[in-house]
Every structure is written in structure tokens, then in C-alpha cells.
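Q: I'm a student working through a structural biology exercise. My instructor gave each of us a protein and asked us to get a predicted structure, then write a short paragraph describing it. Mine is tRNA-specific 2-thiouridylase MnmA. I'm not confident about reading structure output yet, so if you can add a plain explanation after the C-alpha cells, that would really help. Here is the sequence I was given:
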Amino acid sequence: MSGGVDSAVAAARARDAGHDVTGVHLALSRNPQTYRTGARGCCTLEDSRDARRAADVIGIPFYVWDMAEQFHEDVVDDFVAEYAAGRTPNPCLRCNEKIKFAAVLDRAVALGFDAVVTGHHARLGADGLLRRSVDLPKDQSYVLAVLTRAQLGRAVFPLGDSTKAQVREEAAARGLAVADKPDSHDICFIADGDTRGFLADRLGESPGDIVDGRTGAVLGRHGGAYAYTVGQRKGLDLRVPAPDGRPRYVLSITPTTNTVTVGPREDLAVDTVTAERPIWHGETTPVECEVQLRAHGEVARAVVTTDGDGLTARLRTPARGVAAGQAIVAYRPDPGGDIVLGSATITAGRMASPVAAHGA
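A: Happy to help. First, here is the predicted structure for tRNA-specific 2-thiouridylase MnmA. I'll explain a few features afterward.
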């Protein structure tokens, strides 16, 4: 129970379904005062109190589990290391993978519980496969697609068939004080929302060149390549304007040379995406499907092939702003809700020949 409206209603629905429910709030900060207060994040002291009050109203036992050290190692340290390596991580995905459905689930099973219930907006079909929520703008299947079949077998998502508006209405009817609590957003462990400053404090200043991707000319300087991500347009502070006056975008980040490469928007286009560490639930590949390349991003048609520890997606239409470190999630359209076929961590995007990119 995070202290928000979704997990509170999920707990209440699980109790109403006849399950023996215990509410658990995760203490994830070594120093809770350093995590943001109010509604901009999660894991705050306020959230803990809100979760406890919700459990009291629902009528279930409530505990706080201290997982600060593991969260710091598996999520925060990973976040910093990924940026240092020139990638753009998704900490919410990593938290689901390493904390909520690994550490928490393992402890819950050891204590005799059958499953972990969360307030994620996603659905599980009778076949055990993950599906999108009916509320597509709130769908969270993208950050859950990293879960294995074994983890999904012990997961319960009671909110997948409801919209966020319906969840809030139900919370109010149940007398839950969090009914109108704003959704959390941004990164919970960055207290002031300044990701660049957070990384600079941990990685230090590391000046380098910003170069033109076509000519190799030095266009400016940066204080640390970790402050940039592929597709970024603002905050480049370039000394040399483009000859045609058009904006430039970050095309790539090279930690070995501490170089940020920029260019026009069309140079961001890729039609082949490679990824590593796939979690695959679908049929034998290659398979024609839809892929999502970032959280809340649009889907694209693609032919996906898995091969051992790798995954390759050949996009029917080129995509822009594909960043290493993000997840690629494959979906199969289905009348009962898009089915998650699998997920992998993006390693690179490139333009291939038309035959290679569009052959099934």
C-alpha cells in the first residue's frame, strides 16, 4: 500500500473478494526526510501515514517493511550506473522487477501468503498473460512487462477493469481519505525533481564536447554526458547555430569519449531496435506485433525476433528518440485487451536497409 488511492482500493477489493489481506507499506528511503513530500512522488512519511489510515478504514492489518538498503542497491545505484554508461533507465520498471515482485514477493511467500496485490492499472487473463488496462491513458503494463510467468502467477491486479475515475469514485464511497489524492509522478528518490543535479552530485562534473553528428564539428561543451538523453532538444546550450536555423537533437551519447552527438530531427529515425535480456511469454518468433519503446509512448507495428539473450524489432515505420536503457514491450492486439508478449532492455537503434527492416 503506497499511500495512494489505487493501492487502497485494490486492497479493499481483495478483502471484499474474500481473501485474507494484510496491508504492507514499503519504507524505501535511508532517510525519509530526503524523499519528496506532498503528491509529487511516493515513499514519503506522509504516504506511510495515508496507507495506515486506509488500512484502518478497510479493516485489515498493516505493517511497514524496511527495504531501503535493497531499494538503494537495486534501483538507485542502478539508475546512476545506467546514466553513467550513457543509457536512460526506467526506475519504476526496475522497482517492480527487483523490489515489488522479487524482494516483497519472496518475503510474502516465505511468510505463507499466496500472492501480492497491487494497484497497478493492468489485467491478467485466465491464461496468466498480462494485458493492458481498460483505462489506456493510465495503463501500466509497460512497467510490468519485465515480470516472469512465475511472478505473474502470484500477482493480482484488481483495478485493470476500471478507469481511474471509477477508482476515485469508489474510494470516496468507501470513505477513504485518499480518494482525491493526486497521482504521484516523477522519480520518487530525487527530492527536488532535479535529475541532472542528482546525477552530478554522485558522478561529479565531467566536461566534454557536444559534436555535430554529420560533420564532427564541436558545437559546444557539456558538464557531464549523463545529463543528456537521446531525443533531447532543450538545454543543449550550443555555441554554433545550425546553418538552416532548425533545432538540433541529441542523437547519441558515448561515455568512452565523453561525447554528446547532436543533429537534425530526421537523424533520430531508426527502423531496427536491438535489445537484451528478453522476458518472452508469446509464441515462437519472428512474430508480427506492436511494440512500445518508452513509457506512455505510441505503439508501432514491427516484426520481433528473439534469439537467446537478444531481441530484434524491425519497425514498419521508423521511430524517433529510441534510447538505450529503456524497455521495448511487445503486444499482440486482442479483443479482450492487448496481450503482453514480452519485454527487453533496448541496447541500440539504427537504420537498416528497406529489405532488412520490412521483411517478416
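A: Here are two points you could use in your paragraph. The chain has three domains: 5-180, 207-267, 269-358. The domain at 5-180 is CATH 3.40.50.620 (Rossmann fold). It's a good idea to check both against the output above yourself.
Q: Great, thank you!
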